[in-house]
Design brief:
UDP N-Acetylglucosamine Acyltransferase, domain 1; seven-stranded mixed beta sheet; five-stranded parallel beta sheet
Length: 262
């Protein structure tokens, strides 16, 4: 028991640079309080004192804003940062050295009895506001981005973002590559394809798809114009306006104010 307490406190120092002293951590960290109370309520649950266990967990919820069902299994050095709004369901299982942030839900998608909640293996990090829903496994050292909604298994060392959750990195490699054509078109209009691949989102990928479509249309129109020129020597091709970086530059605050006033 004392060893677990020391490890729980040390995990705070390892993952929160704001922690200054053991006394401060013991006094002021609700995530630590919720974990310590859960370890007691979980023992009561194992001893079949289920009503008492639920009452103890409810006390922890009132005091910390963190709801951990006494049936959930928590590993060593588990760290809940900030913690407000965290919900961990009855059949959730959490490995060692796992970190979750405020607003995270480890929930179920079924009313059937049995395994309904996710399993987080060692070293997983779940960002603020993320929802991990269902009886599947999030593999070792996986990362779940803030506000992601994950409803299926995540392999080891993968990064998942978005709604619904999509794997964007696995084993450190990007899973959503851009074609050479997309990159060339993005360079033409000053769009940072590399930045998009680092922080993928539906809007950015829609823009990339539009850029590729525009590039294909330009090529098709060029072929048609050359064919018309061969058919009719008097045909004059009107050049399309060139795209420049300035066309895609962000609007300055002063320009935005002027436009609003005009």
């Amino acid at each position: 028991m004392f060893r677990n307490l020391k490890e729980d406190i040390q995990s705070v120092f390892d993952r929160d640079p704001a922690a200054r002293s053991w006394f401060e951590v013991l006094l002021n960290y609700p995530g630590l309080h919720a974990i310590l109370i859960h370890r007691f309520s979980h023992k009561l649950w194992q001893w079949n004192l289920k009503t008492l266990a639920r009452w103890v967990s409810q006390l922890a919820r009132w005091f910390t804003g963190i709801e951990i069902h006494p049936g959930a299994k928590l590993g060593r050095r588990f760290f809940i940062d900030h913690g407000m709004g965290v919900v961990i369901g009855e059949t959730a299982e959490i490995g060692d050295d796992v970190t979750i942030y405020q607003g995270v839900t480890l929930g179920g998608t079924s009313w059937e009895k049995g395994k309904r909640h996710p399993t987080l293996e060692d070293g997983v990090i779940v960002g603020a506001g993320a929802k991990v829903l269902g009886p599947f496994t999030v593999g070792k050292n996986a990362r779940v981005g803030s506000n992601a909604v994950v409803t299926k298994a995540v392999p080891e060392n993968a990064t998942v973002v978005g709604i619904p959750g999509r794997i964007v990195k696995q084993q450190g490699e990007k899973v959503l590559p851009f074609s050479d054509k997309q990159k060339a078109m993005a360079d033409k209009v000053g769009f940072d394809a590399y930045g998009v691949s680092q922080m993928p989102d539906p809007t950015a990928h829609a823009i990339m798809a539009l850029l590729e479509h525009i590039h294909a249309q330009d090529q098709r129109i060029d072929v048609m114009c050359k064919a018309l020129k061969r058919i009719d020597s008097t045909y004059t091709n009107t050049e399309s306006p060139e795209l420049s970086d300035e066309d895609f530059a962000p609007i300055e605050d002063s320009d935005r104010s002027a436009n609003a006033g005009g």
